[in-house]
């Protein structure tokens, strides 16, 4: 008997020693894990969220995301009904434990041991949040251990409200909706803060089994789960028995997704915004789409609508010709509308930003800006006649005017720009030096390959429409600080400002506002018949459609048609052509760009007051005779207002007997030999 007592006591002591040792080792291990968790610092709470785009009026225009719908709202924006319903069914001791509910763990462990497999979970809200953020949903012990470790880290570094907020913003509610805001929008087409008790209790039951408990998939299961949640809320004192019964009687009205529109708002514009945001935040496009950003854009939905309607109405159905358009604020560079093609669903290629096309004569305003800096004036006379230029390499270059029309005399810069005289342009480029012309293009934000050759004056360089419109905007505004932009501000989901647009005041390249205004006003000449010469001004075909003052420049190559024009308020650029660079052979196809421009500009300006181009202090307006470049007088056949430095204003006045270009042409028409030549040409 004594031997048995001694053996029993020895066994008890060993057991106690082992238990104490295990306890000490367990405590040491826990402390070590705790110290290790603290040493790692707070785990990231980042998860994918929808990025939301706002238009210029501050209203949501669209959202971008991956395969799921995700939003982030603060706990303050969540109604207490959804918070209480979730706590009641998922983890009612959430505010009392340190990430682990040991009562539930013991109960679940006993159930699992009896079944010899994991059949019941005991995860707290903290553990579920950790799993949502960092782990898969596989049922293994390894995952459970990792989940516990991450849950510990969350509890160490974050407040309970932060954890609950994160959980409710990331839990899956089925149908691609992650988070309570996405769920509320999907099921009830309302914000989470507007949820009723009946709606909140229904949604709170879905995460247990998103397919099984979705009211859209299985109403019976969903209603049973809702009843269980409401009963539990009443039991815990969150609601009264009366409110429980009232919520159970409510017939819920679910949002019908079958009639949703599939057409995105300004899809080409949104692509540009996403790319711009990625560049500004130094990340990639996918990160922007799923980063939960709030992106405030410059989009004017009315401008976008009018632009798209004009494209549909202007370009013939069935035509393979493509188009791109950009509308900017003339003074700030804010892009109010953008189309990168006729139909985004057929081709998402953004021709406004990504296509590099030969710009033709739309490049000439920058050339004349460079010339005005080098002793030229709007009245500088250069011969318009067939000319051969000898290049530095010994070769010769012989440009020609459109249809080989020439003045065969000297003309002014103002008239040369209005008529788009190629000989004047190339002569000017050779005179000032193509390298200086290239430098001027860089000043106006034109990048890419720009060959410093005489033919650059005729737009032989390939440049995007977006860059060209941006360059014109800097000319009209007279400022190098402003630039084309689609984003005014970017914030994260907590409204922290990550980026805000500001003019670039650090640029080393300066634009002379007086010279810029001189060129800007000269470009109004493309619509002024007073500048008609050996041919009509280039805007004559659309001048009758215009009801206010505009300036601009058109451009034509074998495969490209351009029109970039502006008012004091807005600039619009249009390109048309074929994606495969084939030649545009039909005259009608060459006119699309001008007519699309005129139609859209007239429409978007209808609600605006008339505005004039305001001269800068360093220039003075003077009326001149377009043909001679002399001051206009009582006997001059025509006159045109031109702005220039006061010191360059001519002193001579045109003679009373001087004839206009039209009068000289009419006299030539009386020559029968000229008519015979025309007949011979047609025969």
Automatic annotation (TrEMBL):
Domain of life (superkingdom): Bacteria
Subcellular localization: Cell membrane
Family annotation (PANTHER family): BINDING PROTEIN TRANSPEPTIDASE, PUTATIVE-RELATED (PTHR32282), PENICILLIN-BINDING PROTEIN 1B (PTHR32282:SF11)
Principal place of residence: membrane
Lineage: Bacteria, Bacillati, Bacillota, Bacilli, Bacillales
NCBIfam families cross-referenced by the UniProt entry: PBP_1a_fam
Residue ranges of domain Penicillin-binding protein transpeptidase in the record: 325-569
Protein name: Penicillin-binding protein
Keyword annotations of the record: Carboxypeptidase, Cell membrane, Cell shape, Cell wall biogenesis/degradation, Glycosyltransferase, Hydrolase, Membrane, Multifunctional enzyme, Peptidoglycan synthesis, Protease, Transferase
Domain Glycosyl transferase family: start-end pairs: 58-233
Catalysis performed (reactions): Preferential cleavage: (Ac)2-L-Lys-D-Ala-|-D-Ala. Also transpeptidation of peptidyl-alanyl moieties that are N-acyl substituents of D-alanine; [GlcNAc-(1->4)-Mur2Ac(oyl-L-Ala-gamma-D-Glu-L-Lys-D-Ala-D-Ala)](n)-di-trans,octa-cis-undecaprenyl diphosphate + beta-D-GlcNAc-(1->4)-Mur2Ac(oyl-L-Ala-gamma-D-Glu-L-Lys-D-Ala-D-Ala)-di-trans,octa-cis-undecaprenyl diphosphate = [GlcNAc-(1->4)-Mur2Ac(oyl-L-Ala-gamma-D-Glu-L-Lys-D-Ala-D-Ala)](n+1)-di-trans,octa-cis-undecaprenyl diphosphate + di-trans,octa-cis-undecaprenyl diphosphate + H(+)
Keyword RNA-binding appears in the UniProt entry: no
């Amino acid at each position: 008997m004594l031997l048995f007592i001694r053996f029993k006591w020895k066994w008890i002591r060993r057991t106690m020693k082992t238990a104490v040792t295990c306890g000490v080792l367990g405590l040491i291990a826990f402390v070590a894990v705790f110290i290790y968790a603290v040493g790692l610092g707070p785990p990231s709470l980042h998860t994918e969220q929808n990025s939301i785009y706002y238009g210029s009026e501050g209203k949501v225009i669209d959202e971008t995301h991956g395969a799921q719908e995700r939003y982030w709202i603060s706990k303050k924006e969540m109604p207490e009904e959804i918070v209480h319903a979730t706590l009641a069914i998922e983890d009612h001791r959430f505010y009392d434990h340190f990430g682990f509910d040991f009562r539930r763990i013991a109960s679940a462990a006993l159930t699992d041991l009896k079944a010899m497999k994991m059949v019941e979970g005991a995860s707290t809200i903290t553990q579920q949040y950790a799993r949502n953020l960092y782990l898969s949903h596989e049922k293994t012990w390894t995952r459970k251990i990792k989940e516990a470790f991450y849950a510990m880290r969350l509890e160490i570094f974050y407040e309970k409200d932060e954890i609950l907020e994160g959980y409710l913003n990331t839990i899956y509610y089925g149908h691609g909706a992650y988070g309570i805001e996405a769920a509320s929008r999907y099921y009830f087409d309302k914000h989470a803060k507007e949820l009723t008790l009946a709606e909140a209790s229904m949604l709170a039951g879905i995460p247990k089994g998103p397919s099984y408990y979705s009211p859209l998939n299985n109403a019976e299961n969903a209603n049973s789960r809702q009843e269980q949640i409401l009963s539990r809320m009443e039991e815990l004192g969150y609601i009264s028995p009366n409110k429980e019964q009232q919520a159970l009687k409510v017939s819920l009205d679910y949002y019908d997704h079958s009639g949703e529109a599939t057409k995105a708002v300004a899809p080409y514009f949104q692509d540009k915004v996403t790319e711009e945001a990625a560049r500004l935040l130094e990340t990639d496009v996918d990160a922007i789409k799923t980063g939960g950003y709030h992106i405030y854009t410059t989009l004017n939905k009315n401008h976008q609508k009018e632009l798209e309607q004009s494209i549909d109405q202007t370009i013939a159905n069935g035509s393979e010709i493509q188009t791109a358009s950009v509308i900017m604020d003339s003074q700030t560079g804010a892009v109010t509308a953008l189309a990168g093609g006729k139909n985004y669903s057929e081709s998402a290629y953004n021709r406004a930003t990504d296509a590099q096309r030969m710009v033709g004569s739309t490049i000439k305003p920058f050339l004349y800006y460079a010339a005005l800096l080098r002793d030229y004036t709007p009245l500088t006379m250069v011969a318009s006649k067939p000319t051969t230029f000898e290049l530095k390499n010994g070769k010769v270059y012989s440009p020609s005017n459109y249809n080989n029309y020439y003045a065969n005399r000297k003309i002014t810069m103002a008239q040369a720009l209005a008529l788009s005289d190629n000989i004047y342009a190339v002569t000017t480029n050779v005179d000032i030096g193509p390298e200086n012309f290239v430098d001027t293009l860089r000043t106006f934000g034109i990048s890419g390959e720009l060959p410093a050759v005489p033919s650059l004056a005729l737009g032989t360089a390939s440049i995007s429409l977006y860059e060209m419109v941006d360059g014109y905007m800097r000319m009209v505004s007279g400022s190098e600080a402003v630039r084309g932009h689609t984003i005014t501000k970017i914030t994260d989901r907590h409204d922290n400002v990550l980026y805000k647009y500001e003019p670039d005041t650090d640029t080393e390249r300066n634009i002379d506002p007086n010279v810029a205004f001189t060129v800007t006003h000269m470009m109004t000449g493309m619509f002024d018949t007073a500048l008609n010469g050996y041919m009509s001004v280039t805007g004559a075909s659309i001048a009758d459609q215009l009801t206010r003052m505009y300036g601009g420049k058109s451009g034509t190559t074998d495969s490209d048609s351009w029109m970039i024009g502006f008012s004091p308020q807005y600039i619009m650029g249009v390109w048309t052509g074929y994606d495969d660079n084939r030649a545009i052979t039909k005259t009608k196809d060459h006119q699309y760009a001008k007519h699309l421009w005129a139609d859209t500009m007239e429409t978007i300006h209808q609600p605006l007051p008339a505005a004039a181009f305001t001269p800068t202090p360093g220039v003075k307006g003077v009326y001149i005779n377009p043909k001679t470049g002399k001051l206009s007088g009582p006997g001059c056949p025509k006159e045109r207002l031109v702005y220039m430095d006061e010191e360059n204003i001519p002193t001579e006045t045109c003679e009373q007997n001087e004839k206009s270009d039209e009068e000289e042409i009419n006299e030539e028409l009386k020559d029968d030999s000229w008519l015979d030549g025309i007949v011979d040409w047609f025969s």
